[in-house]
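Sample intake sheet
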Amino acid sequence: MINPIPKNLDFIEEHGKLVIRRKWFGPQFIFLTVFCVLWDGFLVFWYSVALSTPDAPLMMKLFPIGHIAVGLGLTYYVIAGYLNKTDISLDPSFLEVKHYPVKWFGNKRIDIGDIKQVYTEEIVTRTKNGTRISYVVKVIQSNDKAQKLVSGLSSKDQGIFIESKIENILGIKNVPVSGEV
């Protein structure tokens, strides 16, 4: 039985391929946008003072370099969150995962004959601020190694939908896997 299409997912046929498309945007990106504006704004203020003060200590100019790296990385992630999509494409030969339009790691291409099983795994992250649950879809290849297809899914329904669609299209019988939801 195939579940209905969950929020932030689309199932389409495109250029002879079957595509499951996931939009990245979610409410967390609104919070992160505000955080980035404050973080980056503070750094602009800091450097405007440091560079406009002739006798500013060298440490005032060097100390925030790590903060700049964090700000740039987080800003890049937020931009990707607003714009990016992930396509999981199936054609007669390959399963392909592609993140776009902002470049992101994790693109891959797997020969469909090399896929034995697909499953969804729950990821629990505990911090001092609470617990975060996300989901990842993985494939087990013919060498019995698991490989991540897509991660950061916000709901179990998204993972189960992706897993079910791929298994149905490829004719893979759903077999329980240790650690799957």
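Comment: The chain has a mean pLDDT of 94. The beta strands are 9-14, 17-23, 85-90, 94-100, 108-111, 115-127, 130-141, 146-153.
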